[in-house]
Amino acid sequence: xxxATRDSTAYRPGRRLRALxxxxxxxxxxxxxxxPRLWLTDAREYPLVPIAEGLPRLGAPLDAxxxxxxxxxxxxxxxxxxxxxxxxxxxxxxxxxxxxxxxxWQPWAYQYTLMLAxxxxxxxxxxxxxxxRAPMRAVGACGLIIVAIYFWSGLSKVNAAFRLEVLPFxxxxxxxxxxxxxxxxxxxxxxIEMAIGLGLVWRRTRRYAVAGAVLMHASILLxxxxxxxxxxxxxxxxxxxxxxxxxxxxxRLEATPDRRLLPAIRAWPPASRALAAAxxxxxxxLPVLNLFGRWDSYLSAELYSGxxxxxxxxxxREVSERLPASARRHLVSTRNGPVLSLFDWAIDDLNVPAYPxxxxxxxxxGELCAGxxxxxxxxxxxxxxxxxxxxxxxxTAYRCEDLR
Length: 404
Known about the structure:
Helix content is about 55%, strand content about 5%. It has about 400 residues and is α+β, with helices and mostly antiparallel strands.
């Protein structure tokens, strides 16, 4: 009996919350550490894309001060047990930095920001005897974010581009050239990922979904980690963090006092209900708009899906000669002239992919057009989202005169 009680206590909401208060900021710090040029204005060559004209450019040393402050408050979250003050400060700093550059809206940064917001749902101050279930507000909201990520990420992979392009790329480090016998895997992966997300919700399937999530992230690390292709290092800690989040939130969830992911919301304080509704809107409802091109791919968990749009720049000789060094390294000569992939440039300079949104591509290309006399000195070609059934893409071209 005593052993059973100790086992149950190990999975109580308070312990889960404390684990999340360590795991979320640690994962965020790791992501920032692997992409420092994304956050430091004067260290980078890839253009900034603020959300609105007129916002200040946070150059040195203010950018380093802001980043150090963010790291400090993230550390404070990890070492304090219940205080919400460092969480609120971290949220303010992250939102401010994100407003100054949309390229910082990377999927992992967006997820960690939402999970920090979810931590605000837990009560602060000293714990009272009636607070046993209260930490599940924050834990459950983090669980909802995780469930939504798996579901929308899986659904976004239901397209030919994932089967024909992305999956062979991911499997190549493990099996080499993908044999025809593995072709059905391209249909199975989206279903498995969506099933993991939905399986985490129900008690009878939760244990299998947890095991499936761990295996999936281990496979991704095998494919793109240091033993695989070694590509996109910034997502290595993200995959490890997802394993930790799933185990912390969902493993032995039936051992919590009321066995539910989210306790009765009607009993929550009004401010907590409003914050939980905002989180649910962002992770459950708004990604539906992405199916119609009305919401950003990276805000809809389109991860390794092949469904995002891409951007390439066709510069004239004048523009080519004055491109930053990190961009010139990725100029590819073709019969029609040089071509620059914005994806490759961003990976080289920032260690993150280019943010896949038309408005961001146009702003980046517009920065390259600045100072040129010819309205046709550069062409931006936006490769549209692929056809679901064929994987074929159309393209839209913009000249400098369209970008200024």
